[in-house]
Amino acid sequence: MSNRGRSIERRSSSTLPPSSSPPSWSSPYHHRDYSSRSSRSPTSRHRQRSYSRSRRTRSSRSRSPHYRDTSRRQPLRPRSRSREHSSNVSVNKKEDSISRLGRGIRKTAVLFDPLQLYIVDALAYAKNPYSDLGYDRLTKNLTVEEQNILTDKRKGERIYEGYLQIARLVPGIDKRIDGSTGAKAFFALLQKGANDARSENVRTITRLVAEHINMDLSRQSSTLRKFDHTPNTFEQRNDREVEVIGRAPILNPTTRSGRGLAHDVTGGLCTSINHDWSEESIRRDLRDNKLGLAPNYFFRVFYANYHGNVKKVEEGFLKSPLLVKAWLAIFMASSDQDENTAPTRCKDAQEATSKRPPVAEILGFDGHVPPRTIAYTAVLVYFALSDVSQWRRKFNGVDLDHMYNFFVDYFEDNIPSSKAAKRVGELQAWWDKKTATADGAAATAYETAITTTQSLWQQRMEEEEDQQEEQGDTEQAAGP
After folding, report:
1. Burial tier of 109 (Cβ tally within 10 Å: 0-12, 13-18, 19+)
2. Which residue blocks in 386-439 are alpha helix, DSSP H?
3. What is the average pLDDT score of the chain?
4. Nearest CA to 209 among 269, 282, 154, 286?
5. In degrees, to the nearest 5, what angle opens at C-alpha 337 toward C-alphas 331 and 340?
6. What is the per-residue pLDDT across 173-208, written as a single tens digit (0 to 9) for each?
7. What global pTM score does this model have?
8. Annotated domain spans of the chain
9. 417 CB neighbour count, 10 Å cutoff
10. Contacting residues for 95 by C-beta, under 8 A, at least 6 apart
11. CA-CA distance, 309 to 276, in Å (whole number)?
């Protein structure tokens, strides 16, 4: 700043009193007082220009249909959950828990019956069971009345045995039979869980049966190709007529369309051993409904090597490789939802899936195969061979509920110490070993248990023999 400027600044500051107003002239050396923030201050003018500019910008943007003005949006606050919301969450968790309690019921106890009525019938039978009749199925020359009594007796026993399985899965279920609204809701949720689990298994077995048949037919040493009677065809190739070997269509794993009697392989498996599937006339009569599909439940799909002897129907019965494979897919695979347990939250879904035990372990099979699980699997396998679009009890003259009861009675309705009871016991032991050795860890555990038991009893036998020898030596030394 020059000397002239300094003098002017000194003169103005010395001559003006403190309360006087600013000078009216404009000078580049005069500093205005903007403490009052008047409208003429630079800061205010800048704010006005910024505000006008922002308004113009917002107005131009707001013309666009995709524009959202977020400048005046209030900050988000954590939403507090109301009591009503909390109660709904707790109710949903309770309902989910009840539904999961029922997931093992169809697998181990009963296939079709409504659960509440089933429990009522079981408790009614328990109050008034049949006494010893003095005759059984092996008694000769039974009258029609006696046969009907045996049938009713067996029906009550079957229902009560199923009830015991349900009570093991759902403790205290007998106390729910009071007809109240709460009891009806409880059994509705329980039955929903049971039916949902059955539907999942139906889809699993539908896919498994198709994949098993397709894979078997693709091999050179196929065991199912004997059922395929598709005629050969002729094609023109390079001006020559070539005979092409007929093959049954490949099955779609996701749908049952194209199966049943229309498909040679599934048709041969789902027919009785009484019908010779290799005869063209038999196949034609079955497809035209001139022959009954099920004169009995001895279907080829349930036999070892898919072949049965009409004169010895129990030979190889229920030893089908497809049946064993289906049982393993249902009960030895890791559960997608824990059977009969309340839902839990997992941090790592992949880790939780790997740690989930198989269904057989959750349901407490303890290394044994319950007979009703075999009956359950057999019915699902037979249904997967059909071309029925939806799950139902009856189709093509076959009643799946009666079939299930037949398999259950095959295992449970036997006279003790009879030859039939011995055969059934051997069949159950075969299933225990077959399913235990199917998995590496299970096979190791099974063999370990067998080896340990054999070693224990071997040592006990040796100890008993040594003790008997010592007693004999003592008696000889004592003499007469």
Report:
1. buried
2. 400-412, 419-436
3. 81
4. 269
5. 75
6. 988 887 677 888 999 999 999 999 999 999 999 999
7. 0.72
8. 91-198, 200-456
9. 7
10. 189
11. 12
